[in-house]
Each structure stands twice: as structure tokens, then as C-alpha cells.
TrEMBL record:
Source domain of life: Bacteria
InterPro entries: Bac_surfAg_D15, BamA/TamA_POTRA, D15-like, OM_assembly_BamA, POTRA
Lineage, top ranks: Bacteria, Pseudomonadati, Pseudomonadota, Alphaproteobacteria, Rhodospirillales
Gene that this polypeptide is encoded by: bamA
Function field: Part of the outer membrane protein assembly complex, which is involved in assembly and insertion of beta-barrel proteins into the outer membrane.
Annotated source species: Insolitispirillum peregrinum
Name under which the protein is recorded: Outer membrane protein assembly factor BamA
NCBIfam families in the record: OM_YaeT (TIGR03303)
Amino acid sequence: MISGPVVKGATLVRRALSCGRLLAARLSRVGLGRVFAGAMVLAVGISPLAGQTAWAQFTVNTGVPGQQAAPTPTPTRPVAPVARKAPVVSPVAATTPAAAPVAEPAASVVPEASGGTIASVAVTGNQRIEADTVRAYMVLKDGDTFDSARMDQSLKSLFATGLFADVAMARRGNDLVVKVVENPIINRIAFEGNKRVEDDKLQAEIQLHPRQVYTRTKVQEDVKRILDVYRRSGRFAVTVDPKVIQLEQNRVDLAFEINEGPSTYIRRINFVGNQKFSDSQLREVISSREERWYRFFSSADTYDPDRLTYDRELLRRYYLRNGYSDFRVVSAVAELSPDRESFFVTITLDEGERYKFGDLNVEVAIPDVSADSLRPHIVGQSGDWYNADQVEDTVQAMTDAMGALGYAFVDVRPRVKRDKEKRIINITYAIQEGPRVFVDRIDITGNVRTLDEVIRREMQLVEGDAFNTAKMRRSKEKIRNLGFFDKVEVTNVPSEVAADRTVVQVDVQEKSTGELSFGVGWSSSAGALFDASIRERNLLGRGQDLKLGLQIAERKQSVDLSFTEPYFLDRPLAAGFDLYSTTQDLQDESSYDISETGGAVRLGFNYNQYLRQTLKYSLTKTTIKSVASDASIYIKQIEGDSVLSQFSESIAYDRRNSAVDPSEGYFIRVGADFAGLGGNESFVRSTIDAAQYFPIDDDVVLTISGEAGVIGGILDKDVRLQRNFNLGGDNLRGFESGGASPRDTSTDDALGGTWIATASAEMRFPLGLPEELGVTGKAFTDVGTIGKPDNISGSNIGAESSPRMSAGVGLIWVSPMGPVSIDLAQAILKEDYDKTEFFRFNFGTRF
């Protein structure tokens, strides 16, 4: 038998044959071509005789550096497990070359390997992967004809799986032998050198995970992902070096060594092409900021290409709100400074012409609905500057109005016609019935801890309902208002069941709902204070709220425990209880201390999204103690214990655009208290407070607010002094707490009154300081009056009901350490016995 040598490397074979053919062609000119060609075939060891071994091996090494592509991998010495923040790379591993791109396998086969039938496909070298799995990826099967092209396709298919570091195919007689070297399994992944970005965030970004197959291609992709994470936070000097540690049983540890480098800041933001708005005005519009020393708590001055893209959209919307409908951002370019430590950002604009609203019309293609009935929902008027937000608001208002009329399937489309000569935009809102679509199902994803039912009960849509975009939008708002999630997305996609069905998808990203906080501060009324609280707003993922709080101040100490179940008895009823104990020093105001210990149960429910009612019962033991020897006789009369058994009710109507920092809308609340069923105090009290917010400009808000209350004894009992209203302090700036209340002039003790009325006008405005400082100015005027206490009179009692008035200015600073409020107020109308104060300061922080 004639046996030629084994030929390894199809690429080498192809090159050898190619060179041979070229040389043979030249030698043919002298008659030696055929002789050389025959010698070439013999030289590479290919025998045309049946039964001999012909190898066509294709080798592409994509495995771990140092691992040989052989039928049996060379054993490696075990490496100690990787420890966080400890060296994880051995001296050998540290010098491992960086991952390189995977090379494509050679696609040529020695011709003599073709022909004949494959008796069987044998697989060798596999450890974890079954032989049948390897065969399943191949094009060639048992009984197929040996074919070099199909062998090449089989090789590519096996490499494409990413499971193998090396693959070789050989013909042995009528058998096809496939030799594989498996890619290792990742044992663990570690990050070293990352201080600015947590491990959890990096792990969430990368594609590789423990127990997955290691490939160099995926490592390179993950390196790019890590670099992107750092570049989004303004760190462009970051470097990432992946290190691989070989373990036994074909496993590896993967470590990403990160050199974060310094942050890259924005040194300057320039605008080109802006004629109507100054650079400083436009810098306030965008989210990116120039580097300043006081922005140490903000990342807005670090360069982020994603933020710059967002800035383009902010500029576009700003110009569209101000009438520039042709506006466009020509370019936004960031140039790295020569020292490579900062960026210069240049944004080029094309403002275009400014337009006004022209004719605003409504066309309705739905019977029984007139255009005139929808005209009141048009936001904006003819002659006003064009505002794209008002067009969107009009579309939404008309959609909601049609939904209220029972038309769940409507399509409101604004038809815009621009008149460039007159510089006006005529808009016709065309309304027609849309396709009838129903909710097939609601899918909820992303909630690891929160139960599905907590999210589902906030949905305004259920399976089988007519689909309504307004209800879907309201559902998103209600889920976001829970405060349990960083991100809430509510979308709909066509259902696979039927064309008239849609699937509502709710995707959430949970955030921490537990709070452990401590605070320090100082106020004019309580003095220096310290408070601590622990709270869980989503107890056991059920949406329940549990809080324990403690406050210790110079003049007040309190502890309270509260629990709220937002869906009592699986109904939208917020039920809960409160336990509390408070001690307060009122020596300066009324020459006594007061302590209250008690508990309450409450039940609240919403009539709609704006109207809410709350019912409450409380039982409180009150102790008046430490009464000064020179206190008023009326104060001494209430010394000792009393028990208050009280039923309370309140109803609130809230149309503010924000409950935390409102700038538009109004709020009204009416309350009533009844005491007398049990205990030894008997009275009826009614209160009302309201506020209206007027946006004067983008950052200027005028607030008109007021409150009033009245209390009266029942069952032949007078109202105890501690239940009276007091005027001064927070409800009438320029006066001390209780400083404008009726008082015993002989002892200077405030007694309070049985009725009160106050009003306030306050305007908040920016001071021209950088927005990041969080400083807002305010100017205000307060007015109030108060009635006399029950059954107290005499020449030494100052109880004039004349109006008091004050005016002043102040600052509100939302500092990194907590909110700070400063008021400077001057009393304008007052009585001789009133106590005034010019300066009032409040500061608090939580950490």
C-alpha cells in the first residue's frame, strides 16, 4: 500500500497547488509542465488509491491563549479563584496577548478527498457537547458523498456556533472524522479598578456571564460595551484590558482590568446661527453644562454624546414652542482640547422664520358630534405665536373629550398648512373614527419584587376593554406615582390572536423602596433638631407602607409608627393606623410643656383622579405640665391630663400639575373634626385651605393661598386652650409663632383663638444664578386675623380681631445637604402686644 504524508492546513495546500500550477505553466514552455505537475501531487502526499488516508484539516484557533489545537487539550495548572479587589491575574496570565478577531476558516479541500460515500461521521475531542449535537450542525451526514465544498460548509457551521476553539476534519477510509476543541466555560467574571461604576452596572451591560461559553469575539464586544458605559459618564481616557485565567476542566476566569482615567469635562458650549436667542438663554435650555467649580455634585458638565443628542431634541422643542416651525439643528460637534482633558461643543442652528397661528378649525366625520362642541378644547388662539406643544395638547384634549362621549376609537390628526408669505400656520383638526381595537391581554415584565397585582390594579385598562390611549397614558402615570420604579414604559403591540386585538405591555425597572435616613437642622420654632426614620414603601412587594420615625429637637421630641395598606379588602381603599408620642416645649409662647400620646386609624378613597376623601378616628392622651409659676391663670386651669376622642373627615380636590413643586393648577381641602364620644373634650372644628398657582413665565410662579377655621365647644364644654388656633410664624411671616394670637398681657402667654383666617400672595422667581445652584427668590405679603378664646375676657387680655399684615422677601435653596429657607419679613399692621420677628430660617438635611 502506498501511503502519502498527512497534509495539514487547507490554506497551505491551496497555496502550494496554486504555486505549482503557476510554475507548471511556465515549465510547459520547455516541455516539463506535466512532469512537474505529477511531482507536485506526489509531493503533497495525496494518493488516488482507494483505502488510503487523505487529510483535509482546517484549523482556526479561537480559544484561550496558550491552549493547543490538538485532539486532547494539554492539561493546565489550576488557578486560585478570583477575589474582588485582589490580584486576579498570574504573571503568566498578565502577559497574555489581548483578544484578537476570529479568523474565518479556510474554504478549500484537497480534490482527492472528494468522491465515495461516507460510511459514518465520527466525533472526537468533545467533552461537554454530545457527538449528535456536533453532527446536527454539519451539512454532511452518514450516507452522503464526500464533497470538499460541503466539508467547507460544515466547518463554517461548526465555527459559527461559537462552541469550538478549533475544528479539524479528516477522511479515514470511508469514515469522516471530526476533531473538535471546545471553547472553555466561564467560571466567574471580575472587574478590577472600577471605582466610579459599580460591578452590578457593568455586569448588566456586558453579554458574557458565568457558565456561558467563552469566545474572544464576545470578549471584544463586551470591552466595547464597558467603554461605552464610561464614555456616557464623560470618561474618554478609560482603558479596558481583558485577562483570562485557565482553570481545570476546561474552565476560565475572566477579569476586566479597568483604568478609569479622569473625567472629560465640557469647557465651552458655543452656538452658531442663533439670532433670536442668546447663547446664555440656549445654554439654559439644554441639559449639558459648562464646567464650573460649584457643579461638583452634578455630572451635567461631563461630556456625554448621548446627552448631546438629547440636547438637539431639547433645542428643537424649545424653538417649536416659540413659533420657529422651520427650525433645525444643522450640526452638534464636540472637539477634544489639545490637552485631552475637556471638550469644546459647537452647535450650529438654522432658526428659520417665526410663525403665528392662523385659522384654527375642526372637522368631525362622526355623526352626532358637532365641531362646535370640540372648539373649546383648542389650546391657543389665532394670532398667538405658533406653539407645537399646544397642538399636541389640543390633540390630546380632543381625544379625551371624545372618549368621555363614548367614542373610544377616534383618530385626531392636525392638518397643517404653512403660509410663508404671511408667516402664519393654519391648522384643521380632522376627527374621524379609528379602527376598533380591544385589549387582548396585559403583559407585565421587569418586576422582580413587586407583585403583579400591585401594578395591575393601577391599570385603567383590563382584558377585553376597548383600547384607549388616554387610559393607557393615565395607567403609566399611576404606576409611576407609586414610586417603586425607576422606569415605567407602557406600550401596545398587535396581538397574534386577531387583527382587532392589541397586547398592552408594561415594562418596569424596580428601584430601592427602603429608606434609612438621618437628618440635622435648625428652625426658628423648634431650634436645633435631629431626626431619624426607617421606612419601607413597598413592604413584601405588596405596596404597603411602613414607617418608624424619631425626632429630637431643643423644643420638641417625637416618635411615630405608621402603616398603610393602599388596597384594603382588594378595593381602592387606603387603610392604615398611626401610633405617636410627642413632647413640645411651649414655654416661650404660653409658659407650659405639652405631651401627647395616642393612636389613630384611617381610611381614604378616591372618587376620581382629582377628588379624595379621608375618614379618621384618633384617641389621644394630652398632658399639660411644667407650667411656669408666673403663667397666666388660664394656662394653670388646663394643667393636668385630658383625653381626646375625635372623629375627623376631609375631602380634597387637587388639580395641580405637581404635588411636590406645583407651577399651575389649584388645590382645595375642607375638613371637619368632632370630639365628644368618649374622652373629656367636646368640640366641633371646621377648616378649609386652598391655593391657586399661576405661571407668569417659564420660571416665575405666582401663588395665591389662604386658610380659615373655626372651633366651638359642645355639650356645655369650652374649648381647651391647646385646641385653639394660633396666628404667626409659618402662617403669618413677620410674627413669631403665635405672635399675633390673643394673649394674657400680664404674663405674655399666647392663648389662641376660636377662629382664624389668613391669606398670602407669593411670587417665586429665578435670581439669574446658574440653575444647578438650586437658588430661587421669592417676594410675599401675608395677611391674617384671629378671634378670641372661649369665655376669657378682662383688661389684661389682648384679643383684638383687627387684621395683621406683613411683607418680605426670601430665598429657597435646594442645597446638596438639604433644603434651606430664609425669610426676611416686616410686620406692617400689628397690635402693641404682638410679638414680631424679622428673620426666619429653616434648614434640614438627610443622609
